From TrEMBL:
Catalyzes the reversible cyclization of carbamoyl aspartate to dihydroorotate. InterPro entries: Amidohydro-rel (IPR006680), DHOdimr (IPR004721), Dihydroorotase_CS (IPR002195), Metal_Hydrolase (IPR032466). Substrate binds at residues 16-18, 42, 137, 220, 252, 264. The active site is at 248. It comes from Falsirhodobacter algicola. This is Dihydroorotase. PROSITE patterns: DIHYDROOROTASE_1, DIHYDROOROTASE_2. Residues 12-304 form the Amidohydrolase-related domain.
Length: 345
């Protein structure tokens, strides 16, 4: 008897679609399986204003192949020059669903991010007032802090003080990678959410470094020790409302990753749902995949869950392409390192 799993159609609460030829190539990979996604604004130049977001939204919709449906949920890239009135109008029109905080220098295309949080205080106060979520790449950039400690230090020295100073501010801790991140998210109220990526449920830092350096496992925040991966697995498979899927699928050309100074990002859109089903099955939690991938995210963002349903079927191992072609070069698909038995029907 074939085993099947039916769930409401999933959404991706953290996604990089890029632009141009890359957008054309990666958008169908997400739209095939996801109804909606929170679209990251770290383009070059970044998506800073409501007008930028409207134009990017139009480019995404123009890139969607005929016959596919997909709703991009737009975000604004917070800068020290962001105008609170523009943010308010963008949220109230329904165009923008969140604002993204990149500490300057923390990750890909973050140099235009925030250096001094005091400078964005009026924007944060406006967001707290209207309930617009702030999505945070939570790593300090201080050179003295070890890269493996940057998330935990951020929570103590930046995130917690920020939340205490800004009552009502709704925050998503993006792509958490540590026990400390899990514990902090769990201790929060319903003004706090945390996304977890597919790849951080699968790899630890040994996968990245043992036996040779694996550029396609390099992402930010960098994969941590095994005990952190296990904490993320427990959180994701718990069904708890605080935790939801944000794949952080972040395509870079192979030429930009397989080089002396490779870019950070894992491209997981193609096989994410198969990997997640395998992970949840391994942990005896298939019945909680729907909470993680389809229910907890919409609840946090105060959106209805999708009415459409997705059926996953278990069978012989499925082979996914090892890479996809884009007009600018190839992009390697994340390899989980174990067979995948679940496919989307
Ligand atoms: N996660 C990554 O390693 N890379 C992301 C940026 C980010 O989400 O931090 C990217 O845009 O490439
Ligand atoms: Zn990030
Ligand atoms: Zn990201």
């Amino acid at each position: 008897m074939t085993q099947t799993l039916s769930l409401r159609r999933p959404d991706d609460w953290h996604l990089h679609l890029r632009d141009g030829a890359m957008l054309n190539a990666v958008l169908p990979e997400t739209a095939r399986h996801f109804a909606r996604a929170i679209i990251m604004p770290n383009l070059v130049p970044p998506v800073v204003t409501a007008a930028d977001a409207a134009a990017y939204r139009d480019r995404i919709m123009a890139a969607l192949p005929p016959g596919m449906t997909f709703e991009p949920l737009m975000t604004l890239y917070l800068t020290e020059g962001t105008d609170p009135a523009d943010v308010r109008a963008a949220a109230q029109s329904g165009l923008v669903k969140a604002v993204k905080l990149y500490p300057a220098g923390a990750t890909t295309n973050s140099h235009g991010g925030v250096r001094d949080l005091e400078k964005v205080r009026p924007v944060l106060e406006t967001m707290a007032e209207i309930g617009l979520p702030l999505c945070i790449h939570g790593e300090v950039t201080t050179p003295e802090v070890d890269i493996f400690d940057r998330e935990a230090v951020f929570i103590d020295t930046v995130l917690d003080p920020l939340r205490r100073r800004t009552p009502g501010l709704r925050v998503v801790m993006e792509h958490i990678t540590t026990e400390e991140g899990v514990a902090y998210a769990r201790a929060g109220g319903d003004d706090l959410g945390a996304t977890i990526t597919t790849h951080h449920l699968v790899i630890n830092r040994n996968h990245l470094l043992v036996g040779g350096i694996r550029p396609h496992y390099y992402c930010l925040p960098v994969a941590k020790r095994e005990r952190h991966r296990l904490a993320l697995r427990a959180a994701a498979t718990s069904g708890e409302a605080r935790f939801f899927l944000g794949t952080d699928s972040a395509p870079h050309m192979d030429a930009a990753k397989e080089t002396g100074c490779g870019c950070a990002g894992c491209f997981t859109a193609t096989n994410t749902l198969s990997i997640l089903a395998e992970v949840f099955e391994q942990d005896g939690a298939l019945d909680r995949l729907e909470a993680f991938a389809s229910l907890n995210g919409p609840a946090f963002y105060r959106l209805p869950p999708n009415e459409a349903r997705t059926t996953l079927t278990r069978g012989a191992p499925v082979a996914y392409p090892s890479h996809i072609e884009t007009g600018d070069g190839t992009v390697t698909v994340f390899d989980p390192g174990f067979p995948l038995h679940w496919t989307v029907a």
